[in-house]
Amino acid sequence: MIEVGPLRIPEAELVERFVRSAGPGGQNVNKVATAVELRFDIATSPSLPEPVRARLLSRRDRRVTSDGVLVLSAQRFRTQERNREDARERLAHFIEAGLHAPKKRVATRPTRASKERRLAGKRERSTIKQGRAGRDWD
């Protein structure tokens, strides 16, 4: 069971597959399947509330497939158990990011002073550039 804030995700919703790691490592890499591929179906998970599910699916993340399945690959460590823990921690961080609703932006208007400062700066730049204009000095 993975606990993320108020949510609890049961083991049955996680699909783990152990594969061989890529990269250097000698004979160990060729013999032992230490890398973990963790799959979590966001779209059909009954343990996720609807607003959290919508936020997670709307994120533009390459790890989420078009079917709404999150695929995490962990192969940082040499042991299967450490990679398994790493994948689960990353899943918890991903779900935690969807728990918090983004704050609504409150529309504001620029103050009169800020408008005047902006226009004064524009006038200043204009006079500098007009001074650079080619004049006939003869």
TrEMBL record:
The keyword Hydrolase applies. Residues 113-138 have a biased composition (Basic and acidic residues). Residues 20-36 form the Prokaryotic-type class I peptide chain release factors domain. Residues 103-138 are annotated as: Disordered. One of its GO terms (molecular function) is translation release factor activity. Keywords: Hydrolase. Signal peptide: none annotated. InterPro entries: Pep_chain_release_fac_I. Pfam families: RF-1. GO terms for biological process: rescue of stalled ribosome. PANTHER family: PEPTIDYL-TRNA HYDROLASE ARFB. This is Peptidyl-tRNA hydrolase. It comes from Lysobacter arseniciresistens ZS79. The lineage of its organism: Bacteria, Pseudomonadati, Pseudomonadota, Gammaproteobacteria, Lysobacterales.
